[in-house]
Amino acid sequence: xxxxxxxxxxxxxxxxxxxxxxxxxxxxxxxxxxxxxxxxxxxxxxxxxxxxxxxxxxxxxxxxxxxxxxxxxxxxxxxxxxxxxxxxxxxxxxxxxxxxxxxxxxxxxxxxxxxxx
Length: 117
Fold this sequence. Notes:
By secondary structure, this protein is an all-alpha fold. The chain is 81% helix and 0% strand.
């Protein structure tokens, strides 16, 4: 089960990373305004997500991939908070989904920890 979960997680990371290139405007909208060079950060985070997913695929790089994934999930957490803040301020539909997404980051971090050997 852990092995299947690893491939699912890796696929999700790679897909999420690709979305940074396919839909960069979505990610630009949730970038905290205090961060410099938002477009570059969107692209860099996409590259790192893809790299995380790839590293998780092989036993020799799996632990590195898991640690990098954990660091990435912590690093992008401010963007998730910013998205929730924006939904609240603008009274947008889906606000509660963004609130629920915040603890999802914790579950993803826990999931990534499962792949540390």
